[in-house]
Design goal:
By secondary structure, the protein is mostly helical. Helix content is 65%, strand content 0%. The chain contains 23 helices and no strands. Helix 6 crosses helix 12, helix 8 crosses helix 9 and helix 16 runs antiparallel to helix 17.
Length: 472
């Protein structure tokens, strides 16, 4: 249906009557309403813009009607406000179709999330957060997001929402209107975004343990998603898993966890670290349930290395204390293994170790790797050794020097039947091409030393090598 174009010829009286009314009361008329020529340009172009909108998009577009009214009067700054309001309403409608819980999971962080439940809470979401989250969820494109950011900025700077003296011209206003009509009001949610919504809805609805065929199909679906959408999916699965409303729904939580393990491998590093920071928020709020569930989520996904720095410090402190205590306890060979595994699950490279716990971790692992000098397995836990060796094989020069310094100051590491042999093995593990020549010479000196190892660190030759490297 083609809208009949109105008669756009407006009389001079129609254009100037309002100004005369203001002037009669001594009110300012400059920079209040647009000129006759500017209004005429808007009214000539509007029919084509409005005819491009399908009827279903016009029925409830009250702010678009206000835009037309404001443009006709010449209040372009108010018209910009009105068209922006229509953009916000249109995006909110898409969000409701897409899924409010999913939107809130991605838009609202920390303890505030629980305050957002239904569509009545959408007005509390700031406009910038709204469009940023719509971009994140791929409800709008990156390019449209940039355009909307510009329009929002103009609305804040030159629209009627804030005091200003800028006069918007017709071409600027028409350009913003064209973007909003063609790219927002007439746009539909992408198939990929709807796929993610469907995956989340299905995950919540299934009340029986999902089988391998379903997991295989799920893997294929997630594999085809962009990393951004996969990350959004993981964020939602995480939110569901830690929610107290699922505390008594063990089957659903198990299903969510299985889906999260698959999704994890297709997500961005940024998302994983961001989720890791949520644990700090739960812990700070003394939310024991969410903290425990979040840590379990990361453990099952193999993501402990993505804990925040503070979380790692706390966890490493507790685990190192536990490992040292276990080393001196009964049946340490078996009991050291799970603790060492938990520690190394957080560490893939030296950068994963908080500096404040570096020496504690190295000393604890050194203690266990050198062993208790017993005959059985030469005093080392056979199951734990692979974790100890992995750590020592990834150390940089700074860490290597910490280890050497620890050896020089702890004579009990060097005395016994098997300990000297194990110290030399640790030094061999630490050798790499990334070390300086001086550092490698120090390690070679320890490895090749023929006398009692505790005397190696006090020899003149070693002290010469150690100048500027370790403290005596």
């Amino acid at each position: 249906m083609i809208m009949q174009q109105p008669n756009n010829k407006l009389t001079t009286d129609q254009f100037t009557g309002f100004e005369r009314f203001l002037e009669s009361y001594g009110l300012p008329i400059d920079n209040v309403i647009a000129s006759q020529e500017e209004r005429q340009r808007i009214m000539q172009a509007l029919p084509d813009f409005l005819n491009s909108l399908p009827m279903e998009a016009r029925h409830d577009a009250r702010y678009l009607s206000k835009f037309v009214a404001g443009s006709a009067v010449g209040l372009f700054d108010a018209a910009l406000n009105f068209v922006w309001n229509e953009v916000v309403i249109s995006l909110r409608k898409k969000i409701i179709v897409y899924g409010l819980e999913y939107f809130y999971d991605n838009a609202i962080g920390g303890t505030f999330r629980e305050q957002y439940k239904d569509e009545n809470d959408l007005p509390s979401v700031k406009d910038q957060v709204l469009i940023d989250t719509c971009k994140k969820l791929e409800l709008i494109s990156d390019l449209l997001h940039r355009k909307l950011c510009h329009i929002l900025d103009m609305r804040n700077q030159v629209g009627s929402s804030h005091p200003n003296d800028y006069a918007i011209n017709a071409y600027e206003l028409l350009g913003w209107l064209q973007t909003c009509i063609q790219e927002v009001f007439m746009d539909k949610i992408s198939e990929a975004a709807l796929t993610v919504k469907s995956l989340i809805d299905n995950a919540k609805r299934i009340t029986t343990v999902i089988d391998q065929s379903y997991l295989t199909q799920f893997d294929k679906s997630v594999k085809d998603l962009s990393s951004n959408l996969a990350s959004n999916l993981l964020t939602s699965l995480f939110g569901i898993f830690v929610s107290p409303s699922y505390e008594d729904r063990s089957v659903e939580r198990k299903n969510i966890l299985n889906l999260a393990i698959i999704t994890w491998q297709y997500c961005s590093e940024k998302t994983k670290f961001s989720l890791g920071e949520k644990i700090d928020s739960y812990r700070a709020n003394l939310d024991e349930y969410k903290t425990t569930q979040a840590e379990l989520f990361f453990s099952k996904c193999g993501g402990e290395r993505y804990f925040s720095k503070d979380a790692k410090i706390i966890k490493l402190t507790l685990l190192c204390e536990q490992l040292e205590s276990t080393h001196y306890a009964w049946d340490n060979y078996a009991h050291e293994v799970p603790v060492a595994r938990d520690i190394m699950s957080m560490i893939h490279s030296v950068s994963d170790i908080p500096e404040i716990r570096m020496e504690t971790l190295l000393k604890t692992f050194l203690l266990c790797r050198i062993g208790n000098d017993r005959y059985y397995y030469e005093g080392i836990s056979p199951g734990g050794q692979k974790f100890y060796d992995r750590l020592f094989s990834i150390l940089d020069e700074k860490c290597v020097l910490i280890v050497v310094n620890l050896l020089s100051k702890n004579e009990h590491f060097l005395i016994g039947t098997y300990r000297p042999k194990h110290v030399k093995a640790v030094c061999s593990l630490m050798k790499s091409e990334m070390l300086s020549d001086k550092c490698k010479e120090m390690l070679d000196y320890i490895i090749d030393f023929k006398g009692k190892l505790q005397t190696a660190f006090v020899t003149k030759d070693f002290k010469v090598l150690a100048v500027g490297k370790i403290d005596y």
